[in-house]
What does this fold into?
Amino acid sequence: MGVIINNQIPGLDGKIVNNLQPDQIAKLLVQVGRGAVLVNNKVVPFDEVPGYRSRWDQDSGEIVRLLMTDWSFEDLFPTAMLGDVGFGNGAPRGCFNRTLPHQHPKKKFLYAMECRETDARGAYQMTDGLIAFRDFVNNLDGKAIFEVIYRRPPWAVLNDVDLGKQVQNDGDTPTYEFGRWIVPDGAFTDEAYTLPGNALRWAQGGQLIPEPLTKQRQIEERRYLWHWVHDEAVKDLFDTTLPQVVGRVNATAFDGCAPGTLLCRPPVKSKLRSTPGGNPVRDVEFIMLRRMDSTWNQFFRRTSNKFEDVLLNAQAGPLPQGQDAPYFSADFGQLFKVGN
It folds into this structure.
């Protein structure tokens, strides 16, 4: 049975829906026990059929549902479940936006991560070289059945309003999305630095050591994997933004790190792939190095026995702020830009 028959929704006691908006129709479907998701302002209805199962262990878990939709929505259903990434005029502020994956109705921390078409119901016919299914007896759509697997994603799933509250303390459409679709990772390593001559003395005898000596100190390598980024945004990132950020340090606090302590290394982008809706996307992994005991523009000073700020020796006069030290500074938030 289709979602709307003669301007009525099955199960709503003949309620007329011809004057309702798609989001209102979707809410009404949910009220009568059906599922519904909006995709490109279209209502994609579905019903659950027997086959529900789950698997859990101490490291992970998943829930599998069998969902049935009308055949006319067969092409849109994977997008309704897995979400999408749009770009252009339909996206906020002219850049790109996201359609969130479907959330499990009870276990809210689980989202649709896989969607497989497993069966079809009805008599098949060929249309324009493609198979289609239809209930010819009742002159209705056939059915497509999908296996949808829900898991906890490794990144945060937030809508624009919640993300805006997180990054801007308001519900406005955010200009960057550091709070979602990013998988943080990292490890600690060390680096060698040179202490100048006469910075140390021998413990026995007290004589100064004139030779420069090498010392190890701990640094942190931080990695941020940005998932499912529209390729047009990736092109803008690599062509326009990265030349102004790579090799520079954070001008302001970023992810809990004090200004000047993070150094942006060249990022890596994945191979091009497509969302179920056909949009081109990539993953982008940013690599940053954090100094734990100083900024990148501090060097060890023998006379004070500590790290101190240094500036470039500008013969022609003062340099602009942020470009007056060995490592220039930049706004790291623009790396994760979604709007203008």
